[in-house]
Amino acid sequence: MFQSFDDVSEGHLSRERVTRLREELQRRQLDGFIIPRQDEFQGEYVAPYAERLRWLSGFAGSWGLAILMRDRAAIFVDGRYTIQVRHQVDTAIFTPRHLVEEPPAEWIEKELKPGEVLGYDPWLMTAEQISRFEKAAAKAGAKLVPVDSNPIDAVWAEQPKRPAKPVSVQPTQFSGKSAKDKLTDVAKSLEKAGADAVVLTQPDSVAWAFNIRGGDVAYTPVVLSYAILHRKGEAELFIDADKLPEDVSAHLRGIVRIRPAAEIEASLANLGQQKARVQIDPDWAPERIRAVLAQSGADIVAGKDPCVLPKARKNATEQEGARAAQKRDGVAVTRFLCWLDRAAPKGDQDEVTVAQKLAEFRAEGGMLKDLSFDSISGVGPNAAIPHYRVSKASALPLKNGEIYLIDSGAQYQDGTTDITRTVIIGSPTPEMKDRFTRVLKGMIALSRIRFPKGTCGSQLDVLARQPQWMAGLDFDHGTGHGVGSYLSVHEGPARINKSDRTPLEPGMILSNEPGYYKEGQYGIRIENLILVREPEAISGGERPMMSFETLTLAPIDRRLIEPGLLSPEERDWLNAYHARVEREIGAFLEGEELAWLKQSCAAV
């Protein structure tokens, strides 16, 4: 319906494709080439034309990077994909590497030989990445060089065309603030930073700043475009005009100058000729943008994208929209879980059919624009793959005695959702109950915490892991990520993981999703979205403390809980949460579904 379940991995074709690319590299006098998963906008989701890494290697994850040399190659993935990558790529060609344990820069320093020339596409790599990779190549006695055109595009005969979906307006009834006011705020931030202009390279920042949405990539309603915002208030949006319907043109008229996408380099060069101080975010800006500015004489100011923090701090309108979207989504998920409880034991459902059923329930609720990502629908061993992508070829049937995990989300015009529920089909083993309860304890600990201003996600991450650490267990992914307002389901800058240093601020929406994965057997994850509340005084305390409001509303499978592992405080939280779910979601259910909800939300 919204998600394709075709097998998109073509690892069996990679040998022939790698041969063609190596021939092209030799023609260009390159010894190797870097192939990132990202496109020119560094997005998690990319249009089909930009799936160069998947086309070459077969790897279909949302983040990865390969380095192909004439006689060797490596592919780098994070902890989400260490299992998946070995299933999808030809490991006789690409040696899988763990992104954290052996980063690409270290591989370059160790593996490149003196005199070798490693090419890269400067539109697909950030300025920060290239700075690190150049230093690594220099230490190896090798050289890193940009290419004028991507060699993969030269050998990919059937490469899809670039998207041309129409743009739409996100009205202030959902955005809570006009585009004109947002641009005024950005201009003030530029004045404070001493910059004349800033280049916006992240499509969700462009969408947020101008209150527009698009359909250029799956699941994230953005327009693949760049913008330049000036301190004096002028703005330029680089986009093909034929993507702008009349109502969108009218919306943008007077606040931004529309320029063809191909004119971005000319505008950057013009800034340089004016000796302007231009702010770019080196963590996100393509190296090509930095290079054009530098070569034309601009004074480059390194700074964070000025839209990122205000976008993450949801205003009152966006917060109310998130609550409405979560409740609507919770009704759909609850109806699905009720249906699943009846259907799964019959033995005629598989990972694809149940994911399709959930999409149907969401569509019946109204206001659904799209899913927010490919639903991760896994049973048994597939549930143990954290970012498993189900296909018709890989789908397993749901069987009694197995755990089923569904991680899914939706895009509504008033909010973006992301929820994971793990259920048992039949009866769980004692080990399953132990692991599930430890994951639940970690999720509850994060839900209940109070914390002072300035606290960042890395300081809270341990709360979600401590119950597993005490048993010698852990999970190899972050505990939480930011979530947008009818934008990216994975939104920066704040995250909850072992290393994040961004202070949490009121209005931020994050996921809370600890997990446990037993390779080849089962996986567990429980995920709610949480909203950072304003600081509040605590009776007898000396400092006001922030806290989290849980937004997600759907039952947690009580059959997988070992009550004896829960503390009284944890039991109280769970019972209060289920009482709230029954009260708020039950108002939209009746008959068998309402009866099932009441039973599922009974006190532990």
Please, could you describe this protein's structure?
This protein is α+β, with helices and mostly antiparallel strands and 604 residues long. It folds into 3 domains: 11-155, Creatine Amidinohydrolase, Chain A, domain 1, CATH 3.40.350.10; 168-311, Creatinase/prolidase N-terminal domain (Creatine Amidinohydrolase, Chain A, domain 1); 313-600, Creatine Amidinohydrolase (Alpha-Beta Complex). The chain contains 19 helices and 27 strands. The strands form 8 sheets. A 6-stranded mixed β-sheet has the order 4-3-2-1-5-6, with helices on both faces. It has a 6-stranded mixed β-sheet with strand order 12-11-10-8-13-14, with helices on both faces. A 3-stranded antiparallel β-sheet has the order 15-18-19. Helix 11 (264-273) packs parallel to helix 12 and helix 16 runs antiparallel to helix 17 (457-469).
